[in-house]
Amino acid sequence: LLISPKNADALYQKGCALMHLERYPAAHQAFTTAMEYDPTLAQISLYSGMALARMGAYEEAITAFDRELSRNPKNSKAATRKGISLLRLDRHAEAITVLTESVENDPRNDVSWYHLGIACVATENLPEAIRAFDKVLELNRRCSRAFFEKGKALARLGKPLEAVVSYERALELSPDDAGILYHKGIALAQRE
Question: How much is the mean pLDDT over the chain?
Fold first, then answer.
């Protein structure tokens, strides 16, 4: 950058390095400057949005993800990150729409499936939430959070025995998680 300060590729790489160092404002600035010099740079809006989301600037992140999705509508990572940002803003119905499109475009995207489940729980669509968590577990049997969230949805549906089984699977993967133990205890009390 000292030799060629307008080198968009170098600025992009600098932004990526800053993201790894968790220096999100500086990373966003590097991505923004790179976009000024080369707005066609692949996935630059995605990474800019990721930096913004890490900073808690979810509205701005959504705008960046939309910019990326306008270039590549099937970019599952951008759709996933947009859905997560919508969840952070409690815009659950919009998150469901975006995350559903994401899993339709990339059925093996366990992160989108997981957050789709979270959004469905937030809208009280518990059967769909359980289906989404089951899909996560089909793709990644080591996701303790999916077992945990599935257990919570089952408990809310009045199925404490099934919830306990899901919590036990979560505890096998995360034995020191007090939250899982707490919810398992509640489910055990409900079944009696």
Answer: 94
